[in-house]
Specification:
Elements lengths: L6 H6 L10 H40 L8 H19 L25 H26 L2 H23 L5 H4 L5 H19 L1 H6 L7 H11 L1 H17 L10
Length: 251
Amino acid sequence: MGKAGTDVAKNAADMILTDDNFVTIENAVKNGRHIYENIKKAVHFLLATNIGEIVVIFFGLLLGWETPLLAIQLLWINLVTDSLPAIALGMEPADIDIMRKKPHSSKKSLFADGLWGKIFVEGTMIGILTLLVFSIGNKLYGLTVARTMAFTALSILELIHSINVKTDKSIFTIGLFNNWYLLAAIVSGMILQAFVTAIPVFSKIFQVTSLNGTQWLIVGVISTMPIILVELQKKLNEIKYGKTIFAKENI
């Protein structure tokens, strides 16, 4: 421990205290759990959203449609819509009950306890909802508007989904304002997305067009559906695994 420990003990130790206060161990464990959970959230978000993009392109081609999204649109989504929320999720504050959770086994994968399944289901959900927007737009307004709607919907779907990834508990108990970085990422992402479709210089580059009120309404309604669907998924997990997600902890 610090200067008092021998070099042999230090070399054999998994943890070395730099002072003589054992409270340091508690703080180290808490910080370690916090970092681990935030890495897990960022990976969860990035993989789910990328699976959603794959679903859009793959099933769009499988159905014989014109490609729902162009390469430059996918590049924009990956650089802006994915990156900002993923970084913000890495700054998520620690759960209030983080020290009450069981320790993670060193033998367990990051994707243990059903995380792979959640990622696949959520990614598929994002992809299907985007295809739904594209299908409606293509039927009612034509290909260019349909691509614009799908492009916008996928961007907003991913931004909205970052809220779901914040916690395994219901977001209605955790709240949206405990991570201002994430809130800023979502708002700035939506503003940038609106600029792309509304400003002619950008719309020409991304091969999109401006949307009218009805088209924005379709995009908005479908883009908020992940909150409802994931809340239902969390409730099912509560029933299946006995985790309380809607009741606030008294700590």
